Amino acid sequence: MNDTICAIATSQGIGSISIIRISGEESIDIVNKIFKGKDLSKVDTHTIHYGHIIDGEENIDEVLVTIMKEPRTYTKENIVEINTHGGIAPTNRVLELLLENGCRLAEPGEFTKRAFLNGRIDLLEAEAVMDMIDAKTEVQRKMALNQIDGKTSDLINELRSDMVQIISNINVNIDYPEYDDVDIITNDVLIPKITKLRERIQRILKESENGKIIKDGIKTVIVGRPNVGKSSLLNALLQEDKAIVTDIAGTTRDIVEGQISINGILLNMIDTAGIRETEDIIEAIGVEKSRKSMEEADLILLMINNNEELSEDILDLIKEMKEKKYLVLINKIDLETKLDKTQLPVDSSKVIELSILENKGIEELKRKIEELFNIHEIETKDPTYLSNSRSISILKKCLKRVEEIEESIKNNMPIDMIELDIKNIWEELGTINGTTYEEELLDEMFSRFCLGK
């Protein structure tokens, strides 16, 4: 943390400008060595200066240099940003000069890591920086911004604040039992407080299901027998010829993926190999992948041929997916009906009739998916949720431990033991926003960031 780091903050390639970011105590002095223009050590903070980057007497590039002095910067250190002409050669040459004059090449995410370690942002806000960079929809952008602004962190801070109040009251009871003006914490008093804590955690976790949907999208798997129209459906939804479509059964032998957006929520579409018994080794591998995709899916779209009688393998598929969110799509309604829909062991509200050839039923399918996941409600709400697997997993562990405390209180466990359990949960909650953390966690998390951020 005492050295000065630098990295290219823009995508490498041909463009109008490139930005090289430098952070650290010596950043202004180092850039001053290779800058011909104003003396950067004497300029005001948050100002931009025209000049040239030089190597001895040689002009390297015409640039604009932004000076930002600590502590009002992203990392709370001195930061300099050099705007060079876009392109690989000038950008790399300026970066080389910085390294030769005392900078170290930043590790992935190191600027944001310094912002966290210097107390400018917490861990949830740091994770949201990468979410903002990765945002593909407007809803994803809004959720990431709420996390960057600290709204999501407030949910955790409020939980921890309530727990501190409970811990403090218990400690006063234990240490100063003679005080008459202190509320006596008995099991009867404690149970409502713990119940309220449990309910708040459950509510945050419930709403965070929406956060996961916004961030990761809905993993949607299209399954069915060969030649039922799965690839045609994928192409129709994507409005492009992503998957190969033929009349030959078994054409799709591996999964084919694509994305569509419904009201700002991504559907990660997966077209799978047709599920059937086969002696073709390659096709059999594809069938196995199809079944695995079903297990991992958030939504299963089971396609059935209107022009065929209901088969046992389709009934078996319906049994397999009953615990999942699913829709049954009857395709080829433009052909003669041979399917007896009354034999389908599913609610009629989950059945949609399609003719992909005639573009019928596609919009109804989108509406059904919207209803199934309450997408309209998610899209219209202010998206302040936990959204990453790490923090949700920690909160689930805390919920389980709170439920165990409820049972312990009912079984008359001593109050000082209860206090220790509550304090342990309080510390565990602190790992969500980084109030407490392990160095290995930081290294792993920030390694997923891009260079320059």
Instruction: Give the strand line-up of the largest sheet.
Output: 3-4-5-6-2-1-7
Give the fraction of residues assigned to helices: 40-55%
Low-confidence stretches: 178-183, 242-254
**Can you name the CATH architecture of the largest domain?**
3-Layer(aba) Sandwich
The top level CATH class name of the largest domain: Alpha Beta
Main sheet makeup: 7 strands, mixed
Strand content: 15-25%
Instruction: Give the helix/strand class.
Output: alpha/beta
Specify Rg, calculated over alpha carbons: 29 Å
CATH topology of the largest domain: Rossmann fold
The secondary-structure element order is: EEHEEEEHEHHHHHEHEEHEHEEHHHHH
In the CATH hierarchy, what is the superfamily of the largest domain?
Answer: P-loop containing nucleotide triphosphate hydrolases
Plain-language structure description:
- By secondary structure, the protein is α/β, with parallel strands linked by helices.
- It has three domains: 5-117, Probable tRNA modification gtpase trme, domain 1 (Gyrase A, domain 2), CATH 3.30.1360; 151-213 and 388-434, tRNA modification GTPase MnmE domain 2 (Four Helix Bundle (Hemerythrin (Met), subunit A), Up-down Bundle); 217-379, P-loop containing nucleotide triphosphate hydrolases (Rossmann fold).
- The chain is built from 15 helices and 13 strands.
- A seven-stranded mixed sheet has the order 3-4-5-6-2-1-7.
- Helix 6 packs antiparallel against helix 14 and helix 7 packs antiparallel against helix 13 (389-410).
- The longest helix is centred in the middle third of the chain and has 30 residues, at 187-216.
- The two termini are 16 Å apart.
- The model is unreliable at 178-183 and 242-254 (pLDDT under 50).
